[in-house]
Amino acid sequence: MALKTEHMTLNMGPQHPSTHGVLRLEVELEGEIIRSVKPHIGYLHRCFEKHAEAMTYPQIIPYTDRMDYLASMYNEFGYAIAVEKLLGIQVPERVEYIRVIMGEFQRIASHLVAIGTYGLDIGAFTPFLFCFRDREMILNLFEMTCGARLLYNYIWVGGLSHDLHPDFVRNAKEFVTYFRPKVKELNDLLTYNRIFIDRTTNIGILPLETAINFGISGPNLRGSGLKWDIRKNDPYSVYNKFDFDIPVGTGLIGTVGDCWSRYFIRVREIEESLKIIEQALEQIPEGDVTSAIPKRIKPPVGHVYSRVENPKGELGYFIISNGTPNPFRVKVKGPSFVHLGVMNELCKGHMIADVIAILGSIDIVLGEVDR
Amino acid sequence: MTYDFFYKLFNSDIIAALIQSLLPLFFFILPYALFAVWWERKVSAHMQDRLGPMRVGWHGALQPIADIFKLFQKEDIIASDTDKSLFNLAPVLVFVGSYAAFAVIPFSSAFIGSNLDLGVFFLVGVSGFAVAGILMAGWASNNKYSLLGAVRSVAQIISYEIPTILIIITIVMITGTLNLNTLTQIQTGYFWNWMIFGGPGTGITKYVLIPFMVLGFGIIYISTLAEVNRTPFDIPEAESELVAGYHTEYSGMKFAMFFLAEYANMLAVSALVAVLFFGGYQSPCGYLGNILGLKWFIPVEQLFWFTAKGLFFVFVQMWLRWTLPRLRVDQLMNTCWKYLIPLAFVNLIIIGLITLM
Predict the structure, then answer these.
(1) How confident is the model at residue A11 (pLDDT cuts 50, 70, 90)?
(2) Is A311 left (phi over 0), alpha (psi -120 to 50) or beta?
(3) Closest by CA position to A183, among listed A134, A123, A254, A251
(4) φ/ψ (deg, to 5) at B307
(5) Peptide bond into B299 cis (omega under 30)
(6) Collapsed DSSP state (helix, strand, coil) of residue A304
(7) Chain B interface, best mutation among A23, A29, A117, A122, by max B CB count within 10 A
(8) Are A102 and A154 in contact (CB under 8 A)?
(9) Do A32 and B329 touch (CB under 8 A)?
């Protein structure tokens, strides 16, 4: 007679050190092997989309900050672009440059958190603090610009809340020169570490076809080997004026589309962002950043979908206007929410420790998953 | 030396032996554990561009004492569906297991808790004690994370004991003794008499032994790292996966017992490595006491050298912990069964042949 066996259900989270916020993963285990993973979300739901219907267009900006709180600048950036498209206004050149600089700094900051916490998930504590040390400097730059360190309300529809601080360009250049060698240090400490490679290569392989079917975007899609970046493929703002590469997973170590591949895309994107920042700091024109801000925002009846390349992937805003100062509907297509959907596909057959490695490698922010 | 003193004082061998065995606990291990907690925080902080504790005492030196007081005051939570007797017994067992190991470790020629002829054997056996405690803790907690942590831990400790013991056997084959004090005394003189440099012998055998001793040292250091659950083998308490592993449900003083046991274990295995390969309490470069003609000063120097060697290996453990990521369970087992054990066996056979020659 065969012994009766049953799978063990393990609830990871909502209070768990490595779920990157308040996520609950219902993991079905057979010993240490995973049979299925079911994410339960909604612990951080703040009714962003419903709130947006009751507010005017500029009032929504602080709320977009709170979605992906590690990439607030970029959320504002995307929202501002969408509303400007709806209004049909042109913003001054200087504003576009500052937005790109801020956006790319935000990308670096977001990737530093992703890389640092990923190291932490794998068990390496020190890279985490190194990353946060460097992120701190970016936050200092932001603080210098707009007074806030996490939730900025800086990029407004039609312009910016403040012009740059007089020292900003010098400090930003100093940061770029300081930071270049730190990427190498990070690579030596973590990226090419034998144990790290053993832990992350050939784990959670995301085939390109699955990635496309699940609507994956950003570094996760590029990790699977598709050269797709909205900054290049559907350029917005002034991105077409800069020279930068789109890193793609090549299977340098391990397989294309595994955790290491996704991780390494982020490391290389930091370098590309530094390139963009350097060029933008050189070319930045003079001008007034508040001149194009409309006094009263009342878009004509219509709708718009606008997307930007957020640090985590494609961030899309679908806005329906009914001709009043409040939007009729604001729908956000957030990358983290989409990426979380693929967890089950990635985790099947791996071990408990790999759930953490995979979750870290897709780099989600629960603030944006739940909104 | 100390035993004779207490024997005369109390005129009872049991009391003398008891005091003798408890002395290191109170005067060495507990202060060491408190120091190590602070030290680890400082080491990690300075590696990470931080300062670490700075408020309590000089550079936060009194922080661990404050921590212990805090833990004393904490509520001792016992979750409802736990197996209470096992739950309460487990930390005691782990604590006793790790502290009992120090009974046989020679701190200096004048001070050994108990000069057992089966010293190494006792040490290996007693450190295996912790396995039972950990399994009890994990099972009694009635928590899935604890259970997974405990199962992993037991698998890990038992597996890694094999290469450790195989390497210990090589030393025993060369020196012909299981007594840790005798083992240390054999390695007397200058540092080239240490086992890592082929031991005190002369001639070709000594030089032939050196590479195998270095290999043995590498194996035993890696496997003792795994035995005390330190990074890269801190899988049982992998905080990013299993919250805190087998001691997830423990709070207050019971948690502190696990915590102090971990630090004591770190020193115990470091001391073992130091005794087996680096001459234990022997000075690498002669004694000041001999030069000055102060015989009583020699044991003090020996205590210094023993502490220095032990703490050096503890420092390396900390260094590794704050540098390396963590392995996965199956990789951990692979490392042990596919690499360390075969290598240790080969080492054993070759050293056996060398000693026969």
Answers:
(1) confident
(2) alpha
(3) A134
(4) -60, -45
(5) no
(6) strand
(7) A122
(8) yes
(9) yes
Confidence category of residue B238, pLDDT binned at 50, 70, 90: low
CA angle B165, B167, B169 (to 5 degrees): 70
Residues 231-260 of B with CB under 8 A from A: 231-232, 234-235, 238-243
Place of tokens 């100062």: A325
Kindly calculate the radius of gyration of chain B based on its CA atoms and give it in whole angstroms. Answer: 21
pLDDT tens sequence across A147-187: 888 888 888 888 888 888 888 888 888 898 998 888 888 88
Question: Are the Cβ atoms of B241 and A352 closer than 8 angstroms?
Answer: yes
Given CB atoms, is A16 within the 8 Å cutoff of chain B? yes
Distance CA A340, CA A37 (A): 11
| Predicted local confidence at residue B117, as pLDDT | 82
A51 touches B at CB < 8 Å:
no
Nearest Cα of chain A lies from the Cα of B245 at a distance, in angstroms, of: 12
Considering the entire predicted model, what is its pTM?
0.83
Q: Under a CB-based contact definition with an 8 Å cutoff, are residues A308 and A102 in contact?
A: no
CB contact under 8 A, B148 and A196: no
Per-domain residue ranges of chain B: 1-66, 74-356
Question: Do β-strands A327-333 and A33-40 pair in parallel, antiparallel, or remain unpaired?
Answer: unpaired
- Read off the pLDDT of residues A43-82 as tens digits, 9 standing for 90 and up: 888 888 888 888 888 888 888 888 888 888 888 888 998 8
CATH number of A8-370: 1.10.645.10
Taking the domains of chain A in order of start, what are their residue ranges?
8-370
* Residue-wise pLDDT tens digits, A184-220: 888 888 888 888 888 888 888 888 888 888 888 888 8
Q: Work out the average pLDDT over B336-340.
A: 88
Sheet holding A313-321, edge to edge: A302-310, A313-321, A327-333
Sequence length of chain A is 371
Mean pLDDT, residues A107-114: 90
User: For chain B, how many residues are written?
Assistant: 357
